[in-house]
Amino acid sequence: MSKKKTKYVFVTGGVVSSLGKGIASASLGFLLKMRGFRVTILKIDPYLNVDPGTLSPYQHGEVFVTEDGAETDLDLGHYERFLDMDMSQQNNATTGQIYGTVIEKERKGEYLGHTVQVIPHVTDEIKRRIQLVSTINGGMDVVIVEVGGTVGDIEGQPFLEAIRQFRLENGVGNTVNIHLTLVPFIKASGETKTKPTQHSVQKLREIGIQPDVLLCRTEGPLSQEARRKIGLFGNVAPEVVIEGRDAKSIYQVPLLLEKEGLAKQVIRLLHLDGKPVRLDQWERFVEKVLKPRKTVKIGVAGKYVELHDAYKSIMEAFVHAGVQNDARVELVWLGSEDIEQHGAGTYLKKVAGLLIPGGFGERGIEGKIKAVQYARENDLPFFGICLGLQCAVIEFARSVCGLRDANSFEFSNSTTHRVIDYMEEQSDDIQKGGTMRLGSYPCKLKKNTLASRIYGKTKISERHRHRYEVNNAYRAILEKNGMVFSGICPEKDLVEIVELPDKQWFLAVQFHPEFKSRALSVHPIFGSFVKAALDYQEKQS
Ligand code: GLN
């Protein structure tokens, strides 16, 4: 029997950026998966960085880390959370990677004397990367390709050209183009405007891509008249002009798009047979996201507090943890520099838990350390992630073990007590891109600890992204003073989890659990932390 041919859905964006292509792609992927298709998503990022690992969170938001240690676009986080499956290195392609491969091949002489050009060499490499995704996990039925940026961007052109060629080579019925655009509502005149969408479709057609589905982001309902007009100018039938209405929660989007018939249209255009779909579990989850019975406030002391995209996966993990606890988790963003100035109590009196997320660099560190101290001294539930663990260890070393100038080598190279230090293979001179401790590592949990109770097992594996570690030379003194190392990486004998058993809930992890929390299966640490915060809140009232 011949293997079934993989079908491809290309998702492009028009008019403006930030229309939610990532959520739309993840939602469609989910709806197809629920119909029994093997589906995955490729994110294309048309920038020259090889990956977002070297980009500032201010420019690009969170760097999402996969099991296999790739530093990727935050949209891959949405794919994992919606599809409940692991993405990998192969699911994110950048211009940097594409050109890198082409130039490497050129240096090896693989182009046999030809002039190396954008067409066909770069476009061939783009098509190869798209095709490669179809082979993941023994073969995919549908590959969704989300193209970052907006139609008309110079950077995106080679990708759109490659998609044009790809569609031509793969034939009608095997590929679909969904174009996501904005249909603004002008309040002053009370009108819905279709012109930007018309122009954006024209731009796409100039390149030789006729969209098959127009997904229109709108504030309100899209009238039949607007659909007819958009269809007429966009050269598609009104049935494939789909409303993508603003939603209260991103988790509503698959349900709204299902009602609009997006997956049904895609399946029809790809000549697939889809099983009837049951979404009750997702519906119950969304119901709980929208109407929780309780509310709890958690303070987040981070560096990029003005830019919440930098903490995307953490925010989503709290949504999942909220659902498990029937509560809305309200995150209170605390500037660590404000804490440095005004003291931690000013801010932490108003919350039922403190989270210190991952981060880099010295700025705001002393504020974070003050915040941990407040949490420890007042038995406020505390959860540290990566840098958060490092701050907790520094604070404990200083205040409890009497090592006054304890610090991380990242923040001070003159300290006598480097309780947090470089790992063996790291140094100041190392090349920056892709050289941290990245991806999934096993961790063994100590029995009868908070960590082992939370996980309900002793062997776990979690994802990492850091250069520094707890310095093993200080383990004895920290332990002697009451800190418990409840999770250790067996291969390298590295501290992965620390806790203070005399506190209600005080736990910090060197890894990033937020990357593994999914809509329908919350990460157990987040679930447990929110429960501890709710208990704390109840006791306070
Ligand atoms: N800057 C710290 C390190 O590199 C923490 C990194 C993080 O929080 N992701 O070890």
Can you walk me through this structure?
With 541 residues, the chain is an alpha/beta fold. The protein has 2 domains: 7-284, P-loop containing nucleotide triphosphate hydrolases (Rossmann fold), CATH 3.40.50; 293-540, Rossmann fold, CATH 3.40.50. 37% of the residues lie in helices and 22% in strands. The protein is built from 19 helices and 23 strands. The strands form 5 sheets. A 9-stranded mixed sheet has the order 13-12-14-15-23-22-21-18-19, sandwiched between helices. Bound molecules: glutamine (GLN). The site of glutamine (GLN) has 10 residues, from strand 19.
What is the subunit arrangement here?
single chain
Helical fraction: 25-40%
Number of discrete helical segments: 19
CATH topology of the largest domain: Rossmann fold
